[in-house]
């Protein structure tokens, strides 16, 4: 897993611009004494590297092999290593519990599954864009996987967000509690939490359901139990995706005593987009200060994606890596639009050039107008 940390003048300029923009916007909406903290917080992490998003690689996609028996024991092989594993097979994919980390994947549990789309690039690019906004995202990479001797297929090797979520990111040695996987931007509910986490989840549930509470009471409860920085960054990244269908999992951290969403899957293009704001998202974005912070993060994410041709270089890396993958190895899950396999056996991405161009135009429009 590659983590990037590059300081340069363009990033510094982006940070300064975000602080200034946020200060002006929030000063108008909220008054100067609340404007600076929001502007400062909006800029935090603008130059932060995407969390566990693999750098695009122009090289070949690695070939891996999973062999397992009916008892769930098996082995995960790469050209350089072999790791004993336990596996669970479901409709969602093959969950892999290794005895030790798989290569440079630091997390304790992975899932091997079909890409969200046939082209394979959309899931990678979507996580990358949301990561640019500074939101926590699950680790993911593309592999050619051979399962029990079958022909290799293009698959995603993705992190299963678990108790080690903060440990593998160097945030805390303490385990987190993990809740349900839900559509973005929904709150995940009380499922999966216990003890203090369950109590705080129940308090949030009551707050969201009680229509008689004042806006200030709701704001206080949400700020006390939700990691608002992470949630606003997720909302900002989701805007960069034009609100296409996406999934996140909610975690509870004993370090912050707050709930934090982690994006686990998304696509760049879909037949439908989510326009309504309900529940937690409606309350958060209904607050002028929080909405201004989200908007500032959207703009900073767009600027960082375009700075130094980051988006172009990322896209080019994925496409070069995928160009050598034969059509017969590609089968995508029906999460969004994607590629089509022609009669000749070649893969034609549905408007790949158009999709790339439309995303660039959207990012430029955001940077020019300052609004999603």
Brief summary of the model shown:
This protein is an alpha+beta fold.
Please render the helix and strand layout as text.
Layout: H1 9-30, H2 32-43, E1 63-68, E2 73-78, E3 81-90, E4 93-98, E5 110-113, H3 121-132, E6 140-147, E7 153-159, H4 165-168, E8 177-183, H5 195-209, H6 215-225, H7 228-240, E9 246-253, E10 258-266, H8 279-286, H9 288-306, H10 310-322, E11 339-341, E12 347-349, H11 352-369
Parallel strand pairs: 1-6
Antiparallel strand pairs: 1-2, 2-3, 3-4, 4-5, 5-7, 6-7, 8-9, 9-10, 11-12
Helix pairs in contact: 1-2, 1-9, 2-9, 3-7, 3-10, 5-6, 7-9, 9-11
Low-confidence stretches: 1-16, 18-53, 334-350
Gross morphology is: globular
The major pleated sheet works out as: 7 strands, mixed, barrel
Order of neighbouring strands in the sheet with most strands? 1-2-3-4-5-7-6
Mean pLDDT: 79
The strand count comes to 12
Radius of gyration: 21 Å
* Range of helix content: 25-40%
Could you explain the architecture of this structure?
The protein is 40% helix and 21% strand. Among the domains are: 17-52, no CATH class; 174-290, no CATH class. The protein is an alpha+beta fold and 372 residues long. The model is unreliable at 1-16, 18-53 and 334-350 (pLDDT under 50). The strands form 3 sheets. It has a 7-stranded mixed barrel with strand order 1-2-3-4-5-7-6.
Distinctive features:
alpha+beta, disordered N terminus, three-stranded antiparallel sheet, seven-stranded mixed beta barrel, 11 helices, 372 residues, globular
